[in-house]
Amino acid sequence: MALLDIDKLSAFYGKAQALQDVSLSIAEGDIVALIGTNGAGKSTLLDSIMGQVTVSGDIRLKGESLVGKPTSKIVAAGVGYAPERANLFAHMSVRNNLLVGAYTARDNIADNLSRVENLFPVLAERAGQETSTQSGGERQMVSIGRALMTNPSILLVDEPTIGLAPKVFNDIAEALRRLNAETGLTILITEQNVNFALTLARHIHVMETGRIRVSGTADELREDAALAEAYFGH
Fold first, then answer.
1. Model confidence over 107-117: pLDDT tens digits?
2. pLDDT tens-digit profile of 35-82?
3. Distance between CA atoms of 82 and 94, rounded to whole angstroms?
4. CATH superfamily of the 31-42+69-204+213-232 domain
5. pTM of the entire structure?
């Protein structure tokens, strides 16, 4: 059953059109990646889901339209968002940054905090540290953790590997994989790092100039020589 349905979605920044008739469905419990170069429309698609750009078409979570709702209502409906570059409160502690995400799930703070700190033990170890003094990888963990504190049905993660060393993004991939396996949480990521996406996601959508050009399972895209050459460079 589809958890998230996007139907003929177009998105606009003023008069400039950034997405054109994008349609896709994400099944409950799946891990899906949107891949493409910078400017392909990946982040705009996530911003559209979060109600941060003007759109036409429809976006439905569990059959209920999100279009026209404020971001706070979309979060309350079950969408967790870890944006690119984290956007944390730099001079607040790790723990307080996590607690900011709990405003829509106040009854589950202890359970959600335990889940986040089990997933990323370093965040428990450095709970009192200001995020401005953390490494890029640790800030990315705080960003994902803050999104999980909202107790989401689907987790959106924008460019989780940007600016990170390979070992760090491998750790993040393993954490997301474990989160999905242990809790069944649906995950949608955007990525320019194709190898990361192919390693983590089960289904891939290739975006180019605001459209989805190719869709398939990770295995299908990996094994199609023409697609690999056109989109992945090998």
1. 789 889 999 99
2. 988 889 999 999 999 999 999 999 999 999 999 999 999 999 999 999
3. 15
4. P-loop containing nucleotide triphosphate hydrolases (3.40.50.300)
5. 0.93
